[in-house]
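User: Predict Porphobilinogen deaminase's structure from this.
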Amino acid sequence: MRQVRVGTRRSELAVTQTEWVMNQMEEKLPDSWELIKETIVTRGDQILNVTLSKVGGKGLFVKEIEQALLDGRIDLAVHSMKDMPGEMSAGLMMGAVSIREDPRDCLISRTGATLDQLPEQAVVGTSSLRRQAQVLAYRPDLQVKPVRGNLNTRWQKLMDGQFDALVLASAGIARMGWQDRVDQYLSEDVMLPAVGQGALAVQCRSDDHEILKILKSVHHEQTAAAIQAERSFLHAFEGGCHLPIAGYATVTDDQIHLRGLVAHPDGKRIIKGELSGSNGEEVGRLLAEELTKQGAGDLLKEVRKGIES
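Assistant:
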């Protein structure tokens, strides 16, 4: 019996996502194979009293899991795509990209209020500079304060009155079965999603051809094409999920349409654009070049300086 060890973070959401991938794989597994889940604590799970940007969010939730893959302690790993840094460790590859859940962000409030209905100076919780920038761009009268921890912890902080509302990924809420708690799904015009949001990345060693063959049962080509454009855009800025960068692509026939955004966390400066083409990698790179000409590179330098100071 070959035991195939699947690595994941320990949070309830991460485990739920991993079990979904394992269920998809089960149907294609040889009878002599057995899937075993392995939970791994990442640095991002350990440091909960500091915002992601301050502890260097690039790869914060994947480094320990990638190391376990490289060491042979696990055979594949399931990540939220939006946690994946622009560059991957040598010797590893994305063996599959799952079909995308709802990519939008959503608002959950204590009173049932929408983003428009929140009172002035209401406190909105998020540790994402991308979300912070877009909330403040839309409602500069609100306060945005960092909130860390898993979904259950954040929900409890909301109920305890520490926040008036939270902005969260709709996909995670759906996977937890919490749709009835959502007060508003935020349109892409108000809140452009994070690169890869709503999709799962299944990572494995580049030379593990048996695993790669099995992972075809999980892979969704249309989602992968959209993600390629988004990650190319992110990679051009050497960005990670800790920076105020957003990117969302859709695929129609053979055309990829990408919307991208780079912002200052105060929401006062937002540079955005969109581009279409047939090659995802090229579309992402060209859109990044277009936004760089508008000052996105200088804006991100300023943001990084502020984070480091």
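Residues 54 and 196 are 22 Å apart (CA to CA).
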